[in-house]
Specification:
- The protein is mainly α.
- It has 11 helices and 3 strands; from the N terminus they run αααααααααβαβαβ.
- The protein starts with 7 loop residues before the first helix and ends with a strand.
Length: 243
Amino acid sequence: MNVCTFTYAHLALLVSVSGAIGRSPVVGLLCDIFKSVTALNPSKSSSDYWQAINGTMLRFSKAVADQWQVEKMASVESLAIAKENALTYLANERARIMAMSHEQALTALVRALKIQDRIKKIEAISTNGIMENVLTHSVGAFNEEAFLKYEKSPDNVLHCGFAAGEAGVHPTQKPVRLMQALIELTTQEGQVVLDPFCGSGSTLVAAKLLGRTYLGFEINPAFAAIAEDRLGLGENQQASLFA
């Protein structure tokens, strides 16, 4: 109800009229147009909408009506030119195709349908290695043994809440147990877990508890300090955490 759709022709008309009668009256006309839109009864009919817009403009002043005729003639002329150009192009294309040999016409058709490009795209498709990773390293989708440590039955939903006193140190903090489940499902002991936006360090804490090497990045010094504290990193201990 509060959205007004305008065409470039309507905008061109307002710009032209403003040159004849001034900017302020045209601004007033624009306000009247907005009001006419909000006063419309809800309808799926586009003709009702445009009749309201056009009527508001034509009733405003003779200058609008005069310029309306000029813009209408310009629209008719431009439409005729566009049609003529399109029909000329199609006629030329038809003549070009009709002059082709059978072999040339088939080649042009293959090119137009981009069949060769589509063949190349299909030939380039390959597996992403997920299945091989699962079978070789016992991680991911089929790591049922790891999943059952955290859930009663393996499915695609993990139910892991915060431990007592764990929450409240970061606006988007994740439960350590949840991150442990995800890490154990996808990595093996000794592998590297990277969290480029580690916040309060829940992912890194989970990785440390599971015997993984961890690497974290955090731009906020306060959250970086919280993460270091949760990881038990003293001043003399090398930290894999950068603020």
